Amino acid sequence: MHVVSFGGGTNSAAMIIGMYKKNIPIDLILFADTGSEMPYTYEFIEVFNSWLCERGLPLITPVGHYTKDGKRLTLEDECLRSNTLPSIAYGYKKCSHKHKISPQDKYCNNHIRCKKIWASGERVHKYIGYDYGEARRVNHAIPHDEVNKKYIVHYPLFDWGWSRDECAEVIMDEGIMLPGKSSCFFCPSMKKHEIKQLWHQYPELFNRAVEIERKAAPTLITVKGLGRKWSWEDFYKATNMQMTLFDFEDAPGGCICGAPCGCYDG
Fold first, then answer.
1. What is the spatial distance between Cα 209 and Cα 188, in angstroms, rounded to a whole number?
2. I want to staple 185 with a disulfide (CB 3.0 to 4.6 A). Which of 54, 78, 115, 205 is the partner?
3. How far apart are CA 161 and CA 179, in angstroms?
C-alpha cells in the first residue's frame, strides 16, 4: 500500500508527477483540508485531479477533522468557537496535528487495505515531499521514522536530488500552472506583504481573519493578534494596505508561512 501525503503545493505535486514517471506505485493520495485553505489551493486540486484522471491515477482524497458526533470542524470554526487564535500564534503546533496529521492517520487507520497490511505485521509506504534543500527536515524525521511500526516513510524529492526550482519545472513541463503558496488564509506566520496580497486579492478572507482576532482579543495575554506581537487589524489601519513593488516579488510555490507550523505543502 503506497500512500502519498499531498499538501496542495509545488513539492507534493512534483513528487506525484515524478513517482508516476518513475513507475512508483500510488494507491492513495490524501489531502488534509483544514477547511480554511487559500482559494487557489482548492482550484489547483481540481486541475491536478484532471491530470491524475488522464493517467489512471487515484484522485486526491480530502480528509478533515470531525467532532465526536460526526460534525465537520474547520480550523476557522474552532478558532471562532473557542475565541482563540491558531495555536502557532502562541508558539504551539496543535492546529497542524489536529487538522493536518490526525485526519490522515485516522483515514488510514480505517482503510481496509492498511488494516490488512498492519494485521499481517507489514508496514504501509508513505511518501512526503521534502525537497533536496530540506536536509534538516529529513534528518530530523529519520529517527522517528526508524521506530515507526506502521509506516515506511519515503522522501522521494530528497532522494532524487530535486530542488524547489526543479519541482516547479517538472510541473510546468506537464503544462500545469504552478500552485500558489499553501497555507490557511489566517496563518499567523504570514509575512506582511503576504497579508497585503490577501487583502487585495481576497478581502472577504482578510475580514474573516480579522474577525478571528477580534473574538480572541479578550483572551489574549502574551500575543496581540495574528501577527503575534501585532494584530492584522492594526497593521491594516497603519498601512491602509498600500502595495509596493517589493510586495509582488515573492515567487509562487512553497508554504506561505515558511512551514514552521507544520502545514508544509509537501
1. 10
2. 205
3. 21
Q: pLDDT band for position 265 (50/70/90)?
A: low
Residue type, position 92, single letter: Y
Rounded CA-CA distance 194/149 in Å is 40
What is the 3 state secondary structure string of the chain?
Answer: CEEEECCCCHHHHHHHHHHHHCCCCCCEEEEECCCCECHHHHHHHHHHHHHHHHCCCCCEEEECCECCCCCECCHHHHHHHHCCCCHHHHCCCHHHHHHHHHHHHHHHHCCHHHHHHHHCCCCEEEECCCCCCCHHHHHHHHHHHHCCCCEEEECHHHHHCCCHHHHHHHHHHCCCCCCCCECECCCCCCCHHHHHHHHHHCHHHHHHHHHHHHHHHHHCCCCCECCECCCHHHHHHHHCCCCCHHHHCCCCCCECCCCCCCCCCC
Query: Under a CB-based contact definition with an 8 Å cutoff, are residues 195 and 162 in contact?
Result: no
Q: How confident is the model at residue 256 (pLDDT cuts 50, 70, 90)?
A: very low
pLDDT of residue 243: 64
- For residue 30, the cross-strand partners are 5, 61
